[in-house]
């Protein structure tokens, strides 16, 4: 009974926050590059929403950025789901997005890593089958 009650209390992630030296510029990048929409703004914080409802909150950064790598502790990347990998990859190339890898296949999934306007790591992913 307790496990069932706990499942109903926690319904999922509502948003993920990114600290940016220029939140408006980064929010605009997500709008222009990935077709997100700015759906809420307050005190210099920008919420951007993906077509599937996933949200990012972009907040003003304080202090210098720390150097990170793909395997250092903490959040490492945001995975962006696409319905047509080749078309999405070509669209990002045409927009001048910086890729950090070449497209690859892994267990039937297609992916490629790239960065946003602040250098945060993202990757496109087209899954052969949804995760269980």
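^ Assign residues to that structure.
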């Amino acid at each position: 009974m307790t496990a069932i009650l706990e499942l109903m209390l926690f319904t999922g992630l509502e948003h993920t926050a990114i600290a940016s030296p220029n939140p408006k510029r980064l929010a605009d990048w997500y709008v222009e590059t990935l077709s997100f929409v700015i759906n809420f703004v307050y005190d210099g914080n920008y919420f951007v929403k993906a077509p599937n409802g996933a949200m990012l909150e972009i907040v003003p950064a304080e202090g210098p950025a720390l150097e990170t790598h793909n395997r250092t502790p903490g959040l490492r990347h945001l995975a962006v789901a696409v319905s047509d990998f080749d078309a999405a990859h070509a669209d990002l190339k045409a927009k001048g997005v910086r890729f950090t890898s070449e497209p690859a296949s892994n267990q039937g999934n297609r992916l490629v890593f790239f960065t946003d306007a602040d250098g945060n790591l993202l990757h496109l992913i087209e899954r052969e089958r949804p995760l269980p």
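The mean pLDDT is 92.
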